[in-house]
Amino acid sequence: MVSVKVTTEKKPRSVLELTVELDKEQIEKALDRAARRMSQKYNIPGFRKGKAPRFIVENYFGREALLEEASDDLIQKAFQEALKQEGIEPYAQAHLTAVNLDNPPFNFTVEVPVAPTVELPDYRAIRVPFEQDAVTDEMVNHAMEHLRDRHVVLRSLEEPRPAQHGDQLTVQIETYVDGKLLESRGEGEEIPQSTLVLDPERIVPGLYEALLGVSPNTMVDVTVRMADDHENEQVRGKDVRFVVNVLEIQERLLPEWDELPALENFEGTLDELREKTRQELIAAARKSAEDRVFLEYVRQVVAATTFDLPEALIEREADSILREREGEYERYGVRPEQVYEAQGTTREALIERLKPAAEERAKRGLVLREIARAEGLAPDETEITQEIEDIVASMEEEQRDSARIILGSELRSFVAAGIVDRKLRRRLLAIATGDPSFEQQTTPAVADETHEAAGATPAAEIAETPTGAVDSIPEAAPAVSEGNDTIASTEDGAAVEAAAHKPGME
Q1: What is the pTM of this model?
Q2: pLDDT in tens, 41-99
Q3: Under 8 Å CB-to-CB from 115, ≥6 apart: which residues?
Q4: Domain coordinates in residue numbering, the chain
Q5: How far apart are CA 165 and CA 168, in angstroms?
Q6: Where are the beta strands (DSSP E) in 232-385?
Q7: For the region Disordered, what residue ranges are annotated (predicted)?
């Protein structure tokens, strides 16, 4: 095909508008091809199929019909030639916005989404202070208490007695905020059972005192004033009413301290276990501080970056976020359609609601990708091979050969991406803090998380872990938040049970 005349205009949202001009010869050849196709498809009096000349076909059907038949083929070919000629790679489906094939100048206009553009700021000039929280003796004490608590033995009471400090209560609990149930139930649905440990470190003040001395099969109705600086604004500074039906009281028998190392399968003394716990808390506090630096640094770089993003990218990101949530639903045996119906919404509506969060996530991903390119962090073959061997070494011996093959072929790109993630994290920490020693560390990369929830219920929001706790504490040494009352998550995610607990010891 001969070259075409193309005029381009850059528009917002990474859209390139192409106006493609066609000459008369191109139009005539396209009309000839269209006439042949029409003569083959339709019966024209006096002619066998495919034998009617163009002027007969045009007289019989009209020039407008012939142009309509020709336009798809003509425009597609000219459009592809224009893309090739101008070196344009569409990012998503193009949209035809105008066509003029009747009178000169013959042309059509197409809006073509192109790849996003990202103009990084001077990201190496951005600094974020590294501030690691100190690990106190009190935090270590709390962590050791938690280790001991994991080995508690529950014993039913031989003789009924009032509840004492340290007992575990099996209860049905309803929580009211502003006169409304925190977590609604269906008509006739029974109040779920949960457990409360009678310890002021574990349940909110006021409720603890109300439950001390209570007997089984007793109802307790108490209203507690929440702190003005409570983590959750839904209850901050408000009166929260707890209606508790005490079903059973059990005694909690904790092991002796000197039994703890053996119970934890730790080869050493209690003091050595305590020191190990302290070091784990210190390592977790450092990881938490690194995460704060990393996320704040990325936030500042994103804020200073100039973006031009195609709408298709944002839609894809929103779809990706929603697919992740749908995967969670399905893991619990719930079809996404059931969730949408219960929420009174549709998947399309949720995609729209997710777009702001999707755009922010897309921006973070693009910034990290561009910095990785600018810093030349792509792994070489030696690094990829070593990474594969490290992964394979952690597997059972009978799985290693097949895993090595898969990791070296279908999953090779994921292996490479993991290497880049770690390199990028270390590089950005070094840049942000001005401390090159971060380059020598092997801290795993931070996952890019989005906390905005589509259609989140108040209960789900209440169940979020409060800020201020040390993040990522190892299983052997959980952290305990200090200070404010907290509505924290529980294993079953029930907000009513969560509302009664303080964080850290569950």
Answers
A1: 0.71
A2: 787 887 877 778 877 776 777 777 777 776 777 888 889 889 999 999 999 899 989 88
A3: 14, 89, 91, 310
A4: 5-114, 152-253+490-500, 377-445
A5: 9
A6: 239-253, 306-308
A7: 467-506
